[in-house]
Amino acid sequence: MSNHVIEESNSSATKELEQKQEKEKEEEEDEDDELRKLLLPDVCNLPSVPPSAVESNFAIYFALDFMKPGHDQYVYRHANGLCVIGLAPSHVSFKDEGGITAIDFNVGKSDRSGVKVTGKRKKNAQHFESNTALCKVSTKNDSYIVRCCVKGSLLEVNQQLIKQPELLNASADREGYIAIIMPKPADWLKIKASLVSVEEYKKLREVS
Amino acid sequence: MEQEEEKVSNAFIPSSLSSSDLEQVLHSLPSNALNHLFSLGVCVRCVLRLFGIKGPICASVDNGSENPLDSTTSNEAKLCNICLGILQFRFYDEREKRVLQKDTAYDVALLIADMVKQERYQFDTFSLEVSIPPLILQNETSVWSYMQKKYGSEPWFQEKLHTGCISIKDALKFSLINPLENLLGCKSSLCPFRIRLTYTHTKASEGVAKCSENDGSCKRRKTGMSLLFPSNSFSTPSESNLIGERPLSSSVEIESFDSSKLFLKSASEPCHFSYNCSRTPFYFGGRYLKYSRNVSQTRWIIDDERMGEASVEEIIGTKVLQACRGDNYKFHAAGREDIDVRMLGPGRPFILEVQNTRLVPTEQFVNNIEKMINEVENKLVRVKNLKLVGSDGWNLMREGEAEKQKQYAALVWTSRPLKDEDFQQVSSLKDLKVVQRTPIRVLHRRSPLEREKIIHWMKMETVAGSSQYFLLHLCTQAGTYIKEFVHGDLGRTHPSIGSILGCTAEILQLDVTDIKMECFLT
């Protein structure tokens, strides 16, 4: 008699447990569904070509004919104040046949690619003027000096260019960037006045 | 006589004593030492303390009842030169901003109890803490040494040594605890709710000034030195009431002072007495979800302007703080996400530290707080599994924080349509090593370094209606910059999704979908 009772209570206990486990599983699945709904976007809200990372995160400026005609460079300024320097599409070097074949950071008094900047305070960074030479790019027949454009501390140069100068031809606006400079707020304001915006650049250089 | 003394110091003392009983106790003590102490300006309770007499005598000796050996009434009585009025219940009250003279310990307890009730603290036990000026301990040490020097050879001295003197703190606590327990309606114990009594004295600086007039042999001390200096030249009690300075006798040995010049000045002011109560912090642990792309994790203000519309820390913190009536809160989370990144899935573990709560949260209370936070209209943030945690909560959260894996879902655009082979190629990459130079967006405040991170697995999910948008699910090592892994950060993160697929890739949205940590999951 007592055995029978125990058996019954056991099976109802396991039933309870099973029900609990099933409920938990259901809840989990519900949560997963909820998550999926949150993640999936509505395609009609998406642009066919979204803004690039550079367009989204930087203010884009151009320095035209910097110290010499045709020496057009870009300056991407991040909200945190850092400036990325590179060759604008209208730079004279791109007009040469074959494009850029080599780059040399050993200009002026030091090899810009050799400096090691360390720490949060950016120790050892060299302080340059806007007209200080950053590097020299060479084409088949000619070479051109690329300058800082912005007065500040040189944080890094794009070492990849040394081994792969073709990056300058293929994507000067992204992977072919040349250097990153950190200007003081006052120095930035001074130079900003002489830079042009994307719209102005397009107009002046008749680029679409 | 000796037998009686034994009885007095070791026997149980009844709780109420008349002044004649007090007289009896006093008469049982060695009269030469007793008189000496009284003439040194030591109060009755300090004398009883020094003789190690425990029991309610300390409590029930009324300032109002006459000290049979001193005919002055309590108000005229001079401040004790050891306890500076503390055990005489005379003090400068910080709240009333004047000197008060209370008759009994009960009266002092009343003051304290009123303060506690004013703040409407919830408690079922309290812990009493007392802090007294170091000056007093120094005074006591010198008196003790003096007694040792003078009466060490007497037969009763050994016994007193055996019993030991009761410290001022203990005597005070002892006299206050019972009345406080009665007034507050609960027992005292070691617990997070603390009633703190702080006595301070301004005499400290004066003592130092006097000391510096000496020859160079005086040891410089930071705290005041108002000390009794025993000397062999004093043989009668009347001469031992030192006022003014006395030259040192080099043969006298006192533990910590060798050739310091000392003096005893009758204390003219009682101690400053301040009292308050507070509770040690409570810690709430749980997980939070962030549904908004315009809410930062912590309060973020630049040039007096808030970034984003709210912060997770404030949404959770202010609700909890309000509910338990605390003083302030501190928010600690296991990692963080950008303001424009949602935190979904099981959520991110956090601990909220709340200081000095007036209420004691129960489990039900904590559940209610969680509901309150989640029922807010705009549903920016959600809290799960909120509960009180002990100190182990910290360890759970910090343990392996750097090793824990995180899972994300990124909405990615590619510059060319993707095919099945692309999907398979991405899925096949397991434990992919990625080298990330410090992203430009944080380079202004972080060291320029190359950090190697691991992408444990990736899975691409198509987005209906597009061949160039897809959802990238990935599981990475803690500390991996996901956005940079997608767009490449001008080539400074390699490989990147773009470089793997041989095209340009951009990230439009990022969500954290799992934080693989064990804590606060229930």
Automatic annotation (TrEMBL), chain B:
GO terms for molecular function: RNA binding; tRNA pseudouridine(55) synthase activity. This is tRNA pseudouridine(55) synthase. Residues 283-515 form the Pus10-like C-terminal domain. Pfam families: Pus10_C, Pus10_N_euk. Belongs to the pseudouridine synthase Pus10 family. Signal peptide: none annotated. One of its GO terms (biological process) is tRNA pseudouridine synthesis. Keywords: Isomerase, tRNA processing. The keyword Ubl conjugation does not apply. Residues 80-208 form the Pus10 N-terminal eukaryotes domain.
